[in-house]
Amino acid sequence: MCEIPSHPILTCQEAMEWEGSLLRGEELEWNAMNKVGQSLGAAIARDFTEVMDWPDQARILVLVGKGHNGGDALLAAAELIRRKPPGHLSVVSSSTSSQWKPLTRRADEVLREALSSSGWAREDIVFPRTPEKWSGDVFLDGLLGMQFRPPLRDPLRGLVEWCRQCVQAPFRVAVDLPSGRSAETEGLPADITYATGIAKDPLLAGPKPTSVGRLRYLDIGFFDQGEPEIPLSGRSRLVTAEVLGELRQARSSDTYKNRQGKVWLIGGSMRYPGSILLSAMAAVRSGAGLVYAMVPDKLVPAFAAKLPEVIWIGCPVTRDGNLARETRDVWNELSPDPDALVIGPGLGPESETHYLVGEIGAETSAPLVLDAQALNPLIVSLLRRKKTGPVLATPHRRELEKLSGHSFSGHLSDSELRQVAGELGWWVLLKAPPFTRITDGQGLWVVPTGGPVLARGGSGDLLAGMVGRLIAREKATCGERWGLAFAQAAYWHGLAGDKAASREGAETLATSDFLRYLGPSLREE
């Protein structure tokens, strides 16, 4: 199994048993609840800025159940109140606080203490005595968690339906699991679901995963001392922030550009000139020692003026402006020794071009990264001759169908994705909502960064360049942790998008703006 820093995704029953083995005693449970509440409140305060600046007199609705999810939500509300100017808080429950679990009542006491000197107003609403409609800024769902078993019964069913029909908020957050979500049921839709301590498999395996919204992981140390002694082989796992640990260390004092990786890119066309430029920019900005790019010769002057750090190599083109077969002569003359070769960004659709890059990819021993037009059956057939070096592909859903010859209906399951990668013998990174997934045909890793902010042209080109750079870094230091490099690129790419959205909003960004947040993503998290 590849050593990608990650935690197992457990069933709800497994998660309850593991938590029970770790949190023996009320004080340990209370400490864990406080960690969740504080982390959750801080995360909501940060992520809300993707929508808008925090408003004056903000209105927050906290949906509270009897159990510990309700306690997590109340403590998160207390954290928001400490951080934000006065507003209005509505606490909605299906029962009075006297019926809540002891730690949930204790969390409510913390919230009341925070409110006492804050200037915030509080309103308590016990269902079914609810207003006809509620509108505000933040809806925080802490009603039901991992102990829920369908079907929903009244009064919870009525309360969930009221939330679905009558609550309006631009930012909807779920604690751990959206209320009512299971392997069979969808639950209340959320913009973000914060998996608290352990990611549970209904987040990924339940119906319509997009209703979970963006998946974010609040790690409170449940796996610091090890993992459950249950079968975990082949289990889907969640990539953790530690995946970027090596990139956050000081560079060695004796390093030099070759040791930081030589990345070669082949792509571009007169029809799609910008894609290869974005990939080259990403390779440079993510730290590559040397970047070479083989592109149509007419593009070189403009590209060299825009990005002089790259060694631009002009190549002959076909009548339609795509790389011509004579590009092979340029490659042979240069006799390159890349640490990673990225093929595809901006590549034209002609079969002559595809034969060219497929043959180059098959003959090189370097790790090969395929993106965009390079993900087609002709190139796949040529690459079956590749004797050495891994192949890593970065398709979106339609490209994966074309690549594999399979047609998928509904949400593509983890097992289906594993099957495709296994048949190809490649590493595959699937760029598809609601979260990026990586597999080598055996293990599967979910990346809990990124989201709708990445849904813009050129985002995949940036990722391809970053993958190339991090694969090259691994090769240059004599490593073969291809999955680690793949996961580093995906996590970092998503994190930069998240940070860009939180600073500037998700709507007005240009794709190249993400590059400005690669540094802050490493330095500030």
Enumerate the spans where pLDDT stays under 50 for 5 or more consecutive residues.
none
CATH topology descriptor of the largest domain? UDP-N-acetylmuramoyl-L-alanine:D-glutamate ligase
Mean pLDDT: 94
Could you give the order of strands across the largest sheet? 1-11-20-19-18-17-16-15-12-13-14
Q: Could you state the CATH homologous superfamily of the largest domain?
A: Ribokinase
Write the layout of secondary structure elements.
Blueprint lengths: L5 E3 L3 H11 L3 H22 L11 E6 L3 H16 L4 E6 L8 H15 L4 E6 L7 E2 L2 E5 L13 H11 E2 L2 E5 L16 E5 L5 H4 L8 E5 L17 E4 L22 E5 L7 H12 L4 E7 L3 H7 L4 E5 L11 H8 L5 E4 L7 H13 L4 E3 L6 H7 L7 E3 L3 H8 L9 H11 L2 E4 L5 E4 L4 E4 L11 H18 L5 H23 L13 H7 L1
Parallel strand pairs: 2-3, 2-6, 3-4, 5-7, 6-8, 8-9, 9-10, 11-20, 12-13, 12-15, 13-14, 15-16, 16-17, 17-18
Antiparallel strand pairs: 1-11, 18-19, 19-20
Helix pairs in contact: 2-3, 3-4, 7-14, 10-11, 14-15, 15-16
Question: Which features does this protein show?
Answer:
525 residues, alpha/beta, Rossmann fold, UDP-N-acetylmuramoyl-L-alanine:D-glutamate ligase, 2 domains, eleven-stranded mixed β-sheet, seven-stranded parallel β-sheet, 20 strands, 37% helix, elongated
Overview of this protein structure:
The chain is of the alpha/beta class and 525 residues long. The chain has 2 domains: 6-242, 3-Layer(aba) Sandwich (Rossmann fold); 252-524, Ribokinase (UDP-N-acetylmuramoyl-L-alanine:D-glutamate ligase, 3-Layer(aba) Sandwich). Helices cover 37% and strands 17% of the residues. It has 16 helices and 20 strands. It has an 11-stranded mixed sheet, with helices on both faces. It has a 7-stranded parallel sheet with strand order 4-3-2-6-8-9-10, with helices on one face. Strands 5-7 form a two-stranded parallel sheet. The longest helix is centred in the C-terminal third of the chain and has 23 residues, at 482-504. The radius of gyration is 25 Å and the shape is elongated.
